[in-house]
Amino acid sequence: MNIIDDLKARGSFGFGAAQIGNLYRPIDDETAHRAVEAAWDQGIRYFDTAPHYGLGLSETRLGAVLATKPRDEFIVSTKIGRLLRPNPKPQGQDAEGFAVADDLTRVRDYSETGVLTSIEESLERTGLDRIDIVYIHDPDDHWEQASTQAVKALNRLKDEGVVRAWGIGMNQAEMLHRFVTETNPDLIMLAGRYTLLEQGAQKELLPACLANNVGVVNVGVFNSGLLSKPRPAADATYNYEPAPAQLIDRANQLADLAEKHGVTLPEAALAFPYQHPAVCSVVIGMRTAEQVTSNVQMHTQAQNVPAELWEEAHELGYITSHR
User: Mind telling me which CDD domains this protein's record contains (predicted)?
Assistant: First the structure.
């Protein structure tokens, strides 16, 4: 089974492991491990991590649990592009959003050697014998090296069976479109560019993915918080910054529409990406066992969003139709 079909079959809803890398605030190992165990117990079989998340802490915590599970029963992805190296000038706390000590620092490297080293170190941190999917992580300022050297290395590793599939994970649609049309990825991880509030990826990127048989793993479906509550808070964030008033107004209009059709705004936001045939999985971040249970319930409810909601949202100009 190819990776797209496998994700559709058992990984259509994935566990994003940035939060168990102490994103924004710390949690202890036990809380992180309980979250992963809860995800497993409730049927989640796709787990996404990265060296960037907590300077390796996410990989270590995720691997501690997954290493106890039958290896063929789950899909795991990590990322390359940031090597973790001793920090020559530690200030005490990581400066990139994770509540961890900054004894390590991130070194951008999309070279062939960098790819091989990164994957080897990820295997050590996770304790796993192989990685299913490797994403080139945030190569926004590194197109030349990433599109040549990283792609070459990942294709070789795929041919050798070291990795099963590779892709690119980014917050922008334009460069992802270049990767899809100029290289040969299996997947892309698209963050925040195909949501109830923003469908910029629909015009060129998603059709290109369909044309080139590239699967889309959609993340950031709540646009960093604006769509994560039944009613957006006045201090809600959008793309990790304070949300503009007009977007808060739009989110409230979408919430009205969702309620009219018997669902909540987060349920509609989670359901929306699945309407596009290019999307094979949606991954959302999870921090605690309780949050996992809540998210699984929300995902179940999201499957009940009626088609009439999308039809009315399109008529009102809230979303663009892919059909």
Answer: AKR_AKR15A (cd19152)
Average pLDDT, whole number, for the chain?
Answer: 97
Tell me if 191 is assigned to some domain. yes
Is residue 322 situated within a structural domain? Answer: no
Split at pLDDT 50, 70, 90, the class of 235 is: confident
Residue 125: closest CA among 76, 166, 161: 76
Residue 323 lies in a domain: no
* H-run or E-run covering 241: strand 241-242
Residues 6+ apart with CB under 8 A from 185: 151, 166, 167, 168, 179, 214
State which residues form the domain around 85: 3-316
Task: Give the residue numbers annotated as catalytic, written as ranges.
Answer: 53
The CATH number assigned to the domain holding 30 equals 3.20.20.100
pTM of the model: 0.97
Bridge partners, residue 216, by sequence: 188, 279
How many other C-beta atoms can be found within 10 angstroms of the C-beta atom of residue 230? Answer: 12
End-to-end CA distance of the chain: 27
H/E element holding 120? helix 112-126
Best CA proximity match to 199, nearest among 280, 313, 296, 307? 313
